[in-house]
Each structure stands twice: as C-alpha cells, then as structure tokens.
Design goal:
- By secondary structure, this protein is mostly helical.
- It is built from five helices and two strands.
- It has a two-stranded antiparallel ribbon with strand order 1-2.
- Strand 1 and strand 2 form a beta hairpin.
- The longest helix has 26 residues.
Length: 177
C-alpha cells in the first residue's frame, strides 16, 4: 500500500523556497504566509495532521511534488511535538510547551541538522533562508495550536491515548532533534 501524498502538489503560482511551497494558511498567526481565500476550508496543516497517523507507519515515501516536502516537514514536527507530551501533561501545559518548541530553534531543510536535508534543494541566499524560517515558524505555531486541540479534544486533563500511541512511531524512521 502506498503512502498518502499531498493534494497541494498541483498548486501553481506559489513561491517555492528550498523545495517548500509558501502556501496560504488558515491562521491568525503573523508571518509571511499568503492570505488564504475566504472560501478555503482546508489547508496544508489540516491535511498533514489528517495524514500524520497513516503516514507514520511508512518507512518509504516517494516525493511527488513540493507539497509533499511541506507535508514531510509538518509530519516530522508533529512527531517532535508528540514526543514532548507526557500522559500527565494537561492541556494548558501542553499549549505552553508546544508553543515554546514551535518558536525556538526553527530548523529549515537546508540546515545540516534537518534529518532529510538531502531530499531538498538548497537555498539561494540569506534573505530566502530568513523568509523560509519565518514561514516555517508560522507553520509550527499553527501546528502546535491545532495539535493541542486534537490531542485534548475530549479531555483537557489527559491527552488522547490514540494520539500518544504514535510517540514511538517515526515517519521514515526519522525525527527532528
């Protein structure tokens, strides 16, 4: 069975830096993301959170477009977020912990510390690198907010055991440090 790929692979007229498309996001977080169309109900973050659990089971993933590269980044960050949570972490503690994780040490795929940096093209100059870092910081903050809402959907005291069971599963056997 093949892995699930991004529906945003076919987006055209989108700025691409380091192989990552700067897609519009449904967010209130400030950053360089283009404004989302008001009729848009689903963005790349929603898609990545939906595909996180099934794609976590795969050891191989064929990149079919730039949307897949953004999907990989979000899946790796989501895995890092889940590893920060403990069964005793409350919703408010999780919100604080994941926000601090989202804004500190934003790694871009061009950095040597990124686990799959060989699968991404290089960055042209420092201004593009800074723009990408700001965009990914915006993506990470939004992922952290939405993930807390999903993991604590029914209970604000304890995280969902169904989400927490994916702490030990790593997409393609890789983790963001």
């Amino acid at each position: 069975m093949p892995a699930y790929h991004s529906s945003f692979n076919s987006f055209e007229n989108v700025r691409v830096i380091n192989g990552l498309p700067l897609l519009p996001l449904l967010t209130r977080t400030r950053g360089p993301s283009p404004y989302a169309d008001p009729s848009m109900t689903h963005d790349a973050i929603d898609e990545a959170l939906e595909l996180f659990r099934p794609n976590s089971l795969f050891k191989n993933f064929e990149i079919k477009g730039n949307g897949d590269r953004l999907l990989i980044y979000i899946i790796l960050f989501t895995s890092q977020c889940l590893n920060r949570l403990r069964p005793t972490t409350t919703q408010s503690e999780a919100t604080k912990a994941l926000y601090s994780l989202a804004v500190t040490n934003v790694v871009i795929p061009a950095d040597a510390t990124f686990p799959l940096h060989n699968m991404y093209p290089g960055v042209i100059d420092k201004s593009e690198s800074d723009t990408l870092r700001q965009y990914l910081a915006q993506v990470r903050q939004e992922v952290a907010l939405r993930l807390v809402a999903l993991v604590y959907a029914g209970d604000s005291v304890a995280p969902s055991k169904w989400w927490m069971s994916f702490q030990k599963r790593h997409f393609m056997g890789k983790t963001m440090a």
